[in-house]
Amino acid sequence: MNPLLQQLQPYPFERLKALFSSVTPAQNLRAISLGIGEPKHPTPEWLKDHLLAAFSALATYPPTAGDLNFRQACSKWLKGRYKLELNPATQILPVNGSREALFAIAQTVVNPKGHLNAKVQLHNAMPYVVCPNPFYQIYEGAAILAGAQPYYVPSLESKNFAMDWQSVPADVWAQTQLLFVCSPGNPTGAVVPLSEWQTLFELSDRYGFVIASDECYSEIYFRPEAPLGSLEASKALGRPDFKNLIAFTSLSKRSNMPGLRSGFVAGDSAIVQKFLLYRTYHGSAMSGMVQQASIAAWSDEAHVVENRLKYQRKFAAVTPLLQSVLELALPDAGFYLWAKVPGGDDEDFARELLRQYNVTVLPGSYLAREVAGHNPGRGRIRMALVAETDECLEAAQRIVDFTQHYLAPKP
User: Fold this and answer.
1) Per residue in 48-104, pLDDT tens?
2) Long-range contacts of 161-168 (CB under 8 A, 24+ apart)
3) Distance (Å, rounded) from C-alpha 188 to C-alpha 333?
């Protein structure tokens, strides 16, 4: 067996299952889960017609590079969303959801025995993959299985959970081959501003590492302006070739289609070319049937606007209710609330909430790593407001009732 597998940590939901193994949930209340970020709004009904119309595509092997019509639809969406002109033949690839692609890019980029920039002298043999902390655990697993060492960058709670890039030592940047950025962030909902992108691009240009920008939550937001994208920032900062930058997005959150496993990557044509080579051997071509349905989804914004309005109304109703007992703020984007719990014990809070009120939330410490004795997720919970508004409101009221009891002095 690959010995690197032994370095992988249990996935957050495995840890949650273990935490709840001895808990009997309140039987007088229906179960409500805010634990998993799986969209629950209905998938557009018209998707069925497009899937069935392309049924015959299942009779042929799809090309890894995807159908040109699919890539053109993605290019057209990028132009409408970000005012960008990308070459669909050389700068865009289909992927089977952003998760598999985020894992695969590390296997493509990381050279465990060297550095992408020949001018950089390594201080030790193992390269770094830099990722945020808290984070989406795929980043860590992808780094480890590519033969790299994850380096966790803490978030600045005082600055809306922006990453503290200045805390990364120069010798770490010198050994970095890949940087994962999540904007809007999971679990914090923070969006990377233009000034921060400028810092990251300057570091990438200086040290030669690739930036992988995870943007799967980009279409769910609560401010008047849509979140800034990495490619959009690159162009604005005079980098229209997107050097060493590749962005990831999907239909899962945007269109409530997580089971379709459809997304795309876009950016630096040199990286896209190498990624295509890797994916050809990896066997990760997207079904022609899925591609045709995806073209329809990327070409329609009406369902996205409706979906976003649902989230905006839901968060407007739920957030003030929870703010009466928990320390939290409306995020920039995404569908999570990242709340500080009383007492500072996120595991105990989650366990007792399930036991007494049959509501599932995810302990924040499961989404982060302890560095220098500090886990930035400890004392927090992540709540995924993915169900319909009435169910989320019911869960929120239960959390309010529970927290008031949880805060009460013990006899």
Assistant:
1) 999 999 999 999 999 999 999 999 999 999 999 999 999 999 999 999 999 999 999
2) 161/185, 161/188, 161/189, 161/190, 161/338, 162/190, 162/192, 162/196, 163/132, 163/192, 163/196, 165/196, 165/199, 165/200, 165/203, 168/130
3) 9
What pLDDT is attached to residue 113?
A: 83
Report which residue type is found at 90: T
Ranges of beta strands (E only) in 29-101 are: 32-33, 92-95
Q: d(Cα 198, Cα 268) in Å, to the nearest integer?
A: 17
Beta strands in 86-127 (DSSP E): 92-95
CATH code, residues 3-42+303-407:
3.90.1150.10
Do residues 79 and 291 make contact, with C-beta atoms less than 8 angstroms apart?
Answer: no
Residue 160 gets the label, from left (phi > 0), alpha (psi -120 to 50) or beta, of left
| DSSP secondary structure, 273-318, as one string | HHHHHHHHHHT-PPPHHHHHHHHHHHT--HHHHHHHHHHHHHHHHH
Per-domain residue ranges of the chain: 3-42+303-407, 63-297
CATH number of 63-297: 3.40.640.10
Q: Could you tell me where the DSSP H helices lie in 324-388?
A: 346-357
- Both tokens assigned to 329: 């703020």
